Amino acid sequence: MKKKYIEAGRIVGTHGLRGEVRIDPWCDSAEFLCGFKKLYDAQGELLKVKRARVHKNIAVVQLEGTDTVEQADALRGRIVFIDRNDARLPEGVNFIQDLIGLRVEDADSGTFYGEVTDVLKTGANDVYQVSMDGRDYLVPVIPDVVVEKDIDGGVIKIRPIKGIFDDED
Fold it and tell me: Mean pLDDT, the chain, as a whole number?
């Protein structure tokens, strides 16, 4: 089941003296995180964003009600969340949180290969870490391999390339 709130980053410190916080983004980029006017804490409480900007790879955010460096420092270490309904993702792009735990099956035979336990960002393409019986396999997320992603159905169908699941030397 898809969660309403998605982890988006951690407050790692303060910025300046006016209560701004630095957020290490766990999403694709600090720019993506800066596009939100509402963030949430772990209890689902609203954190209204007054302004946000990117500084290096960090989001610098001014939250309503946080006007001093002391108030900002009290937020250090907290995880911030976004509401999935506020996010606009391009076609075919999914939240990693939605992929973790999906069954991975052969598109043709239905053979079960395991479950997605991680999504690795390699630059050229993502790679799904698929785990079964204590073993991990790396599945490249390319059109020739990943045939179908059914998030609501809980399954990813693939046509594995030679060497992913068989023990070749």
Answer: 92
Evaluate whether 128 touches 119 at the Cβ level (below 8 Å): yes
Q: Do the beta carbons of residue 117 and residue 100 sit within 8 Å?
A: yes
- Helix, strand, coil distribution of the chain in percent, nearest 5: 10, 45, 45
The total number of residues written for the chain in this structure: 169
Q: How far is CA 21 from CA 25, 26, 38, 94, 167, in A?
A: 12, 15, 15, 27, 49
CA-to-CA separations, 135 to 90, 115, 127, 158, in angstroms, rounded: 32, 11, 16, 18
9 forms bridges with which residues in the sheet? 25, 80
Q: What's the pLDDT tens digit per position in 41-72?
A: 999 899 999 999 999 999 999 999 999 999 99
For residue 29, which of 138, 149, 121, 99 has the smallest C-alpha distance?
A: 121
Helix segments in the chain, DSSP class H: 30-34, 69-73, 96-99
The structure's pTM equals 0.78
Q: Which of 118, 27, 28 is nearest to 81 (CA)?
A: 27
